[in-house]
Amino acid sequence: MRIHEYSGAELEDVAGEVFVPVIARTAPGYRGRMALHELGETLALSRAHWGPMSAIRTARMAARASEDDLMLFCVQTAGECGVHQNDRFVAMTAGTGLLAEACSPSERVSSTETRTLTLRFSRELLPLRAAEITEGCARSMHPAAPAMQVLTSYLSRLFAVADDLTAPQRLDAGQAAIDLLTMVVRDVAPSVPSGNGPGDVLLDMMRMHVRDHLADPNLGVEELARRHHVSVRRAYTLFERIGTTPGAYLREQRLLAAQVMLSDQRYTRLGMSRIAAAVGFRDLRTFERAFLRAYGMTPAGWRREHGRTASAPASVLQEVPPH
Question: Three-state SS for 236?
């Protein structure tokens, strides 16, 4: 087992060596600690104690990752944080699991101390199709799910005994962890069609329409179905393919756009009512309640904690010029 103890200035070097390269921001006096077991050539299990920080993996960093590059499966064992990847946001609390891929940009933000148990492995070890893996990333894996409970217990026990195993045993134990993770991902990820039939094309068109018309307050489930010449029932059936409903997808995309605007320093002088309107909410109270349910804090609280230079969606930029 290797032990790393590091300051905020050393965090990027440690993350690049143990996990994947990121741009890290920490408070003065930051201290972190990590213990690492190498299970195989591209397979490792670590336990870490993090201070408050943000870690951003940019599009340029992600573009350097090949298709068989690293994956990270993280179990939050203490504290809270938020993770953003693949247009999804997950609020991580104790016991929650999350799969992340190196080949997509991501951001992890925590305002408190956190503890994690992380399995790092080569993408090629996970016996799932590329589309299944991507759909399984950045989705909350609930601690109460039976498959998640089995995997969490196994990883905790493996970390405790790894030093007593031989090298072949560690490799076998790591592969067993991958097999359990496969079960968890299949449990949480929406079913991914194997082909690109007419239904898949129509679903892609509807999703793109939502992202391009977030500011339209008239865009709801019935209007989305009407614009694509399908019934509301058909719209629900199509969105079942990605494990959600048309209304939930529309709300998620609007809140993600609001989140990015609140993190964008160009919009710091823009009031909450205008941000709500820019992403299609007619009523400020409705927007604030939805944001609080999704992210665990108010829009104003998010702006205070996460304000930085970001890139708001093009459909929103067209509606609200920066001040």
Answer: helix
Please name the residues in contact with 75: beta carbons below 8 A apart, sequence gap of 6 or more.
95, 96, 97, 116, 117, 118, 151, 152, 155
Q: What is the pLDDT of residues 231-287, one digit of tens each?
A: 999 999 998 888 889 999 899 889 888 888 888 777 888 899 999 999 999 999 999
The overall pTM is greater than 0.70:
no
Could you tell me which residues are beta bridge partners of residue 114?
Answer: 50
The CATH code belonging to domain 198-319 is: 1.10.10.60
Amino acid, res. 232? V
Are 79 and 69 in contact by the 8 Å Cβ rule? The answer is: no
The CATH superfamily of 2-188 is: Jelly Rolls (2.60.120.10)
DSSP 8-state symbol, 191: P
Show Cβ contacts of residue 244 under 8 Å, excluding neighbours closer than 6 positions: 190, 252
